[in-house]
């Protein structure tokens, strides 16, 4: 954490991530000291204070991404999975390519994903990594944390994996075999001991996150996992109700709804969040709200896979904490938080508009133009994410909070003519250049550049890795 004092001067607009009238702050200046926002208002520079000139820039809380699969950053637009829905895509792309990852390709994929996120103004990523198999030759968890540390990002490792397969184990290649339950639990304890830091300023957290709750482990083991997580003081995460298949599978296997299944196995509560929650019955929404179980909304992946659009309005009204996640780049070729926020803004409106009926047929509204404001989307993508991840001191731009701040430079013609510059980074789509991104008060991106990073070399490495992995997958 920086011990220097830094002054962000003359911001054109400030979004805070807070609800209601507090969603914007007049500023125009923000002082950061010892990694924390010390003052906001009209401030005079102190002697020797570092200045960031934010004229013509807008300030946002740095984004909190609550669901990613960083390893998929080398699986973008994979042709066999490009035009498929979830289940067929899973077999065609992420599962078919599992065994093609080695230490160097995994590391490269993680690095690419983190850099895409950083360049969109994201400080925190919850990576739901499910690339684990018995006798794996590299330590994926350690690579995630070390790559995050090298870039100064906040990493929440959601330790995925499965202790049961959907097909007979002897037919599976090694990389698709389930882990032994005792080994999974022992590894969770190891990860928490080694990496988990519960402090508010923490850059490392660990979460219990079997890949998909209905299929990854037998019910009795899920209960044990929840118990261990709570005894270790860590959170719980998984995929749930991404498509109608979840409703069908829960009915066929357990004669329950997916959310009922979670309730039966102690997998609901304000320490639990699920990715997707696209297909829910009204009674399931009510239970999620009563238990304050959260959602990582992934509109671009849900769109790309044709899964649907989660009903954030109903979920939030019921009391569900809402956050945004980009999901893996194998089902989202725009895996950055500005794109995700832009999609969330449009799609909640489109979703509501789709329900509009003509008045002669009982319709009562014209469309969904009032469904989600830019301020709502910013709040979901920042404060909402921090709440869900239990990061009490990040996610908003206000005095006393950690300085996780994105300063966007709206100097592209895309933003010329805007009546309200503050909405630019979400409303206009594309990527606004960063004047600066700071995490815990430390400047990580400066004038849109990450110092020391050779993007050309990385592009070449990525192209060669894709070729190698295609050859390995074809074998
Ligand atoms: Zn996912």
Automatic annotation (TrEMBL):
Domain of life (superkingdom): Bacteria
GO MF: hydrolase activity, acting on carbon-nitrogen (but not peptide) bonds
Signal peptide boundaries: none
InterPro entries according to UniProt: Amidohydro-rel, Metal-dep_hydrolase_composite, Metal_Hydrolase, MTA/SAH_deaminase
Record carries keyword Cell inner membrane: no
Annotated EC: 3.-.-.-, 3.5.-.-
SUPFAM superfamilies: Composite domain of metallo-dependent hydrolases, Metallo-dependent hydrolases
Pfam families registered for this protein in UniProt: Amidohydro_1
Positions of the Amidohydrolase-related domain: 58-423
Keywords per UniProt: Hydrolase
Enzyme class per UniProt: hydrolase
Family listed: Belongs to the metallo-dependent hydrolases superfamily. ATZ/TRZ family.
Protein name, as recorded: Chlorohydrolase/deaminase family protein
Lineage: Bacteria, Pseudomonadati, Pseudomonadota, Gammaproteobacteria, Enterobacterales
């Amino acid at each position: 954490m920086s011990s220097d004092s830094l002054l962000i001067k003359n911001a054109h607009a400030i979004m805070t991530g807070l609800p209601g009238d507090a969603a914007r702050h007049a500023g125009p200046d923000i002082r950061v000291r010892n990694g924390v926002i010390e003052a906001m208002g009209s401030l005079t520079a102190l002697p020797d204070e570092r200045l960031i000139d934010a004229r013509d820039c807008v300030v946002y809380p740095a984004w909190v991404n609550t669901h990613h699969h960083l390893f998929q950053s080398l699986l973008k637009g994979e042709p066999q999975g490009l035009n498929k829905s979830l289940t067929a895509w899973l077999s065609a792309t992420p599962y078919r390519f599992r065994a093609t990852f080695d230490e160097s390709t995994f590391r490269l994929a993680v690095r690419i994903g983190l850099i895409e996120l950083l360049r969109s103004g994201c400080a925190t990523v919850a990576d739901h990594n499910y690339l684990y198999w018995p006798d794996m030759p590299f330590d994926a968890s350690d690579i995630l944390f070390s790559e995050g540390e090298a870039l100064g990002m906040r990493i929440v490792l959601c330790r995925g994996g499965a202790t049961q397969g959907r097909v007979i184990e002897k037919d599976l290649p090694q990389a698709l075999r389930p882990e032994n339950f005792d080994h999974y639990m022992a590894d969770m304890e190891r990860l928490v001991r080694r990496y988990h830091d519960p402090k508010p300023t923490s850059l490392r957290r660990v979460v219990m996150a079997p890949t998909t709750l209905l299929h990854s482990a037998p019910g009795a083991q899920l209960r044990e996992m929840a118990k261990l997580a709570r005894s270790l003081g860590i959170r719980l995460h998984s995929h749930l109700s991404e498509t109608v298949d979840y409703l069908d599978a829960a009915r066929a296997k357990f004669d329950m709804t997916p959310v009922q299944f979670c309730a039966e196995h102690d997998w609901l509560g304000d320490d639990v969040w699920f990715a997707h929650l696209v297909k829910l019955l009204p009674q399931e929404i009510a239970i999620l709200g009563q238990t304050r179980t959260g959602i990582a909304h992934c509109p671009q992946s849900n769109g790309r896979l044709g899964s649907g659009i989660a009903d954030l309005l109903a979920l939030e009204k019921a009391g569900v904490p809402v956050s945004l996640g980009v999901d893996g780049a194998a089902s989202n070729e725009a895996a950055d938080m500005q794109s995700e926020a832009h999609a969330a803004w449009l799609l909640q409106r489109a979703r509501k508009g789709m329900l509009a009926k003509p008045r002669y047929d009982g319709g009562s509204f014209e469309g969904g133009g009032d469904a989600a404001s830019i301020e709502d989307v910013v709040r979901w993508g920042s404060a909402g994410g921090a709440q869900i991840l239990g990061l009490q001191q990040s996610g908003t731009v206000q005095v006393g909070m950690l300085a996780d701040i994105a300063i966007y430079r709206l100097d592209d013609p895309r933003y010329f003519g805007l009546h309200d510059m503050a909405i630019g980074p979400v409303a206009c789509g594309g990527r606004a250049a960063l004047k600066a991104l700071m995490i815990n008060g430390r400047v990580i991106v400066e004038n849109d550049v990450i110092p020391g990073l050779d993007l050309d070399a990385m592009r070449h490495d990525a192209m060669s890795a894709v070729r190698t992995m295609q050859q390995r997958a074809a074998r």
